[in-house]
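Hi Y.,

Following your request, here is the sequence exactly as I used it, all 484 residues.
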Amino acid sequence: MTDTAHTVETGEPAPPPWLEELPPRQIVAELDRYIVGQDAAKKAVAIAVRNRWRRAQAPDEIRDEITPYNIIMIGPTGVGKTEVARRLARLAGAPFIKVEASKFTEVGYVGRDAESMVRDLVDAAINMVRSEREDEVYPQAETRAEEKLLDLLLPPPPAPARADAERTPPMFVVGSTGAARAATPEEERRGRSREKLRQLLRDGKLDDRDVEIEVAPQNYPGLEMLQPPQGMEGADINFTEWLQDMLPKRKKRRTLKVPEARRILVDEELKRLVEMDDVVNESLDRVENHGIIFIDEIDKIAGERSQAGGPDVSREGVQRDLLPIVEGSTVQTRYGYVRSDHILFIAAGAFHVSKPSDLIPELQGRFPIRVELTPLTEGDFIRIMTEPENALTRQYQALVAAEGAVLEFTADAIAEIARVAFVANDRMENIGARRLHTVMATLMEDLLFALPEFPDKRIVYDGDKVRERLAAVISDDDLRRYIL
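Below is the corresponding structure, written out as tokens. Let me know if you'd prefer a different format.
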């Protein structure tokens, strides 16, 4: 069914396609909306993501043989490595997580083991699929919750006593269609009252009413203390969930306003309507065939060989723990076994101190595609301030607009901000585009502080105003180091 047909039939826009279904050129175009430059990295990521879809179209006998071409991105901090991961996470319809290699420890040490990244990916997939299923049945859940609210606002009449019911036979009215239905004046009045209440409820005129509902407790106090310590999860058994299933479900009655009661009732109906077994099965399939794991700061676990003849034990141990996961192994999670053979791994690191060749050879071989990201120039800073949809200038304009004011930056003001950021990076530690955040925060500090009482609601920054505001900081070396 085409997007147009979907819009005509349902009245709603068609859901966006998965990132894998887009051609590589369009994937790069999506990344270009938020990330300036780094065309080589965008191209490599686009090809790798598109290859997931191509593999799915391959014949069955060759499909399992096509392994993903993992990528390692090399470049200084602040040039867009992590931003590529963040944007992929938002664009992809596939399970995606970002982890930091420096958080993991070798098996046998206290800390997080490398297999936990696959378990985290499964959790992300469960949340993603469950949200999709809940969106599908949300109108049905709302309807059920509305009926329950109406029953609370207009309780049904008490059932007649058994003796009275036997003495008074029910009366039926036969309509023109021949169908028999019970018809009493009380029921008709009740039906009309219920429909009036329904309309008032939908119009929000009953939001101040209190209703009493039964609420299941979210968790039992103190159970979180029974969780295994970090790094000793084993098969990742969730003791809290297991104990909650074992303990009796005691509901308590609470008096709530109608909107809060509606929210709780909708949540309960969603849990009833969504079949978790189907969610788990689809989630595990997505993880195994479409999952993407971004491993940041991989250079932190790459150490130069020491004079004693070997690298840091813990660092090389983490690499050896990562190796079977990246190569392809079976990981036990709380939802079942997951194979990591076809998960796409994208690693990134600055490699200031170490080099990619300092990684163990086996791990290097599992990242056959290497992409170098170039340092940002003064011209790149200008583009970063103007081109992306989430540019810093637009962010500050939105913040100022909240106070009813209008903020404008002239071209020479943006050029001066870019020059100051570039000079600061050149004289001190090069932190890439993050330097723009510190420069802009220093520039806008006084304005944002005084904005509620600011007399002029149209503020324009030009080159002279920027130079005047930042001159003291730039000229004073100690102050510059402190602020920028």
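Confidence is low (pLDDT under 50) at residues 1-16, 163-168, 220-237, 306-311.

Thanks again,
Q.
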